[in-house]
Amino acid sequence: MTGGAEPAGPVRLAGVDDAPSLGRLLHAFNTEFDCPVPEVAELGTRFAGLLSGDDVLAVIAADPSGDGDDVGFGLITLRPTPYWDGPLAQLEELYVRPDQRSRGIGTALIDRARSESAARGAHEMHLIVATEDVDARRFYARHGFSDTDPDSGSGLLCYLRQL
Amino acid sequence: MTGGAEPAGPVRLAGVDDAPSLGRLLHAFNTEFDCPVPEVAELGTRFAGLLSGDDVLAVIAADPSGDGDDVGFGLITLRPTPYWDGPLAQLEELYVRPDQRSRGIGTALIDRARSESAARGAHEMHLIVATEDVDARRFYARHGFSDTDPDSGSGLLCYLRQL
After folding, report:
1. Whose CA, among A51, B17, B37, B163, lies 20 to 30 Å from A113?
2. What does the alpha-carbon distance between residue A160 and residue A152 come to, in Å, rounded to a whole number?
3. Best mutation site among B134, B159, B162 for testing chain A: the one with the most A CBs within 10 Å?
């Protein structure tokens, strides 16, 4: 908490009814960073499908003032691994609306994302960050994440390709 | 192909019966790189469970000589995404036994991993590589993978933490 900012509002685990709100937030996230993104309605429809399975979780931060639209979210997928029983968690998205930053909302979201994933047996959480996104890298480091392999100490790069 | 090396043997999509072979190969992979890994039998049991679902694929390279143990494998997970219909593919592991390298087996495995993932509707494949693993980075770059975001051009780092 800094200055006179309001405390973070409640963070809830998303249900299927939250799909439209998640669609709006994911759209706002990509629009802010000039990334191509499907329409809000299409995202909402897809979130409704995703949230009906047990391999996708989302956490949502309500407006701290108690009214208005939700102000942030995290999206987590769970996938199986041969290394342990229970899933590997991937934090696919984490977003707080620009006008609501520096109020602890990101921390509340990531804490809930971690606890919900651990409650489902996940031993590890992965995420991808852009090299240039120094603020995000600092945020994740502060929350115990590292971009080095705990065994080898080597840095870890994400490679991708279209199929 | 280089020199007088034998051509790569056939690559097959793994079934549940291949779980023991996958356990041996994943164990050999981690042992070669001094990474902690469960016992072969435990890995085999877990692979049998993984391969019974529709969110895990494995591809296996047989011994090119036609007898002997399998010589390489790839492990792919499929997870849902809000960005498109169909899954996002993650190449979790790709391994060729040291005595069988430089014979096109890695290429045969990754080609099959890509085609099987695309056939299931995946638009994109991700993987993690250690910064210091120059050979692997060169291999993946040669196969069309990039460690930069196609939209922003920024590098992409993998962060992780234990839960």
Report:
1. B37
2. 22
3. B159
Residue B61 and residue B18 in contact, taking contact as beta carbons nearer than 8 Å: no
* Dist. CA A45–CA A16, nearest whole Å: 10
Convert chain A into a string of H (helix), E (strand) and C (coil). CCCCCCCCCCEEECCHHHHHHHHHHHHHHHHHCCCCCCCHHHHHHHHHHHHCCCCEEEEEECCCCCCCCCCEEEEEEEECCCCCCCCEEEEEEEEECHHHCCCCHHHHHHHHHHHHHHHCCCCEEEEEEECCCHHHHHHHHHCCCECECCCCCCEEEEEEEEC
Q: What is the pLDDT of residues A26-45, one digit of tens each?
A: 999 999 988 999 999 999 99
Q: Where are the alpha helices (DSSP H) in B53-104?
A: none
pTM: 0.94
Instruction: Convert the pLDDT of each residue in B46-87 to its tens digit.
Output: 999 999 999 999 999 999 988 889 999 999 999 999 999 999
Number of CB pairs < 8 Å for A and B? 194
**How many other C-beta atoms can be found within 10 angstroms of the C-beta atom of residue B137?**
17
Computed on alpha carbons and rounded to an integer, the radius of gyration of chain A in Å comes to 16
Please name each of the domains of chain B with its CATH number.
11-142 (3.40.630.30)
Whole-complex ipTM:
0.93
Determine phi and psi for B118, rounding to 5 degrees: -65, -35
Angstroms from B99 CA to nearest CA on chain A = 23
Q: Sort strands B11-13 and A156-162 into parallel, antiparallel or unpaired.
A: unpaired
Cβ of B137 and A117 within 8 Å? Answer: no
